[in-house]
UniProtKB/TrEMBL annotation:
UniProt keyword annotation of Oxidoreductase present: no
Source organism, top-level taxon: Eukaryota
GO CC terms: membrane
GO biological process: positive regulation of axon regeneration
Organism for this UniProt entry: Kryptolebias marmoratus (Mangrove killifish)
Record GO terms (molecular function): cytokine receptor activity
Xref: CDD domains: FN3
Full protein name: Ciliary neurotrophic factor receptor
Signal sequence residues: 1-22
Keyword Protein transport attributed: no
UniProt record similarity statement: Belongs to the type I cytokine receptor family. Type 3 subfamily.
Biased composition (Polar residues): 309-331
Gene3D superfamilies: Immunoglobulins
Pfam families named in the record: fn3 (PF00041), FN3_IL27B_N (PF24031)
């Protein structure tokens, strides 16, 4: 009987401890509250009654921004990013902490902007998306891509956050692809769709390893060669054509050459001795758009061995020393005025000096 009572007493005490601990945990763990920028925000201190008296702190100091209190509630007007922070409330008169709220001020997402491109035709394509305006709070995206009323498998890019990859389910398809991107955050969600046909998004990467070399004894020629982009998977079945542009460094006007299939070209109309800048772009021979320009390469056509540069500087040097006497010969003329004046001063004072000398004698 006695033992039983002790046991149940123990249980009650234990339960009370557990409950107290759980309550403490609730008070200590901050909960998140997301609010729209510009709105008036109400934060409720735990589940305290309407007539409870509490005081609030943000980031550990008293709340100073415009606000008012209604019992256990803190009301902030027209919140902006400066109101973000960790808010805690304490019940008067003992100052026990009753709640902790992390306030996050943000915006609803706006329609995502979507673009898609295939640089690996006919293997697959990728889509990028971004929000036209930041939301300031975590925002996630859902992507759905439909083709011929079927959802395609979408693979997230391991590096680019807002990018996904898709394999073409078939080649030469006339059905459009429909991309639906939904942006979701704590304040709401919004979708946008983008529709395209296979042939419109094909854009290869720029050609690689572009080189330009002078040709011996040919002062107007440059030999340019390059490789097809490594990302283009099947150059034999899906050949690329190329576009070459070049100009002397000192000119703004580009000259262009379009080349089907070849990965080299000889420029024959270069200005002798002028440094050239050269770039190449690529495009599928039938569909899509031109790639961006390749990294610029510089080259100068072959020129006959010029005279050693050292001899010309040796010639220049003596002429420079010869010219220097001209300014220095002027200098004495300018100096004549003070000299004259000094002479005159001496002339005026010399009788006095003479008198003084006579006196001293
Ligand atoms: C609270 O601290 C955070 C982070 O340090 C800061 O961004 C925020 O502006 C602070 N909030 C207030 C109301 O001072
Ligand atoms: C886009 O996806 C969202 C979320 O799955 C869906 O609610 C919406 O209806 C879709 N929009 C279109 C045009 O299919």
């Amino acid at each position: 009987m006695m033992a039983n009572l002790v046991t149940s007493l123990c249980c009650v005490v234990l339960a009370a401890v557990v409950v107290a601990y759980a309550q403490r945990r609730i008070q200590l763990v901050a909960r998140n509250q997301y609010e729209r920028m510009g709105s008036d925000v109400t934060m409720q201190c735990g589940s305290l009654d309407r007539d409870a008296s509490v005081s609030w702190k943000v980031n550990g100091t008293d709340v100073i921004s415009p606000h008012h209190l209604e019992g256990p509630r803190l009301i902030l007007t027209e919140v902006d990013l400066g109101h973000n922070g960790l808010y805690s409330c304490f019940q008067n008169p003992h100052g026990d902490r009753r709640d902790t709220i992390y306030l996050h001020v943000g915006l609803l997402p706006q329609k995502p902007v979507i673009t898609c491109r295939s640089n690996t035709y006919p293997k697959g394509f990728y889509c990028n998306w971004h929000l036209p305006h930041p939301t300031y709070i975590p925002t996630a995206f859902e992507v759905d891509i439909q083709h011929n009323q079927r959802s395609l498998t979408v693979q997230k890019d391991p590096v680019h956050k807002n990018r996904c990859h898709v394999r073409f389910p078939e080649v030469f398809s006339s059905y459009p692809y429909i991309v639906n991107v939904t942006a979701i955050n704590a304040l709401g969600k919004i979708s946008n769709t983008y529709s395209f046909e296979e042939s419109n998004i094909v854009k290869p990467d720029p050609p690689e390893r572009v080189t330009a070399t002078p040709i011996r004894f040919n002062p107007r020629r440059l030999e340019v060669s390059w490789q097809s982009p490594a990302t283009w998977p099947d150059i034999d079945s899906f050949p690329l054509k190329y576009f070459l542009r070049y100009r002397p460094l000192i000119r703004d006007q580009w000259q262009h050459v379009e080349l089907s299939d070849s990965t080299s070209h000889t420029i024959t109309d270069a200005y002798a001795g002028k440094e050239y800048i050269i770039q190449v772009a690529a495009k599928d021979t039938e569909i899509g758009t031109w790639s961006d320009w390749s990294v610029a390469v510089h080259a100068t056509p072959w020129i006959e061995d010029p005279l050693p540069i050292t001899s010309t500087t040796e010639v220049d040097f003596p002429t420079e020393t010869k010219t220097s006497p001209i300014p220095s010969s002027r200098a004495p003329q300018k100096g004549q005025v003070p000299v004259d004046r000094a002479a005159r001063v001496v002339a005026v004072f010399s009788p006095l000096l003479l008198g003084l000398m006579l006196l001293l004698m």
